[in-house]
Model the fold of this input.
Amino acid sequence: MKKIFALLLALPLVFISCEGDQGPPGENGQDGFIGMTYDFTIDLTEQNDFSYTLFFEDEGIEVYESDAVLVYHSSEFYDDPEGDINIWKLLPQSVYFTNGDILEYNYDHTFGEVKVFLDGNIADLGTLDTSYTQNQLFRIVVAPADFIAESNVDINNYQSVVRELKLRNPNNK
Done:
């Protein structure tokens, strides 16, 4: 029994002491990097059917099928002495008019592109004030879907997403 006990104690040392050829070096990572953001300003007009498609490859954005793609819209900002601070709201976002009309900013995506578009119950989107269609600022957030699910981050709160995912923005906006 003592021999079996001694053998069991020595067994882990055999595995710890083993050496072999060193494997190939791994890729250099980016400390703390989990996701990225990308900003773009667009006009949503009759000419483009009130939609805009951004192709990730054209912008140097790498998206995998397993990634989450979130789109935020900024139509408001806080005045700040050091520069305006955008207020970001996760799409879809609805605008309710006093006459009962509803305008919705929405999106869909694949791992190759994201399409931002206007929707709602307005019979003629061409009658909208240009403040709803011109120079619209959007921000895409790309991050591993598993990480978002496991982190329990509130995706509706953009600042919380930035903090939790340690995001970077390739176009520095």
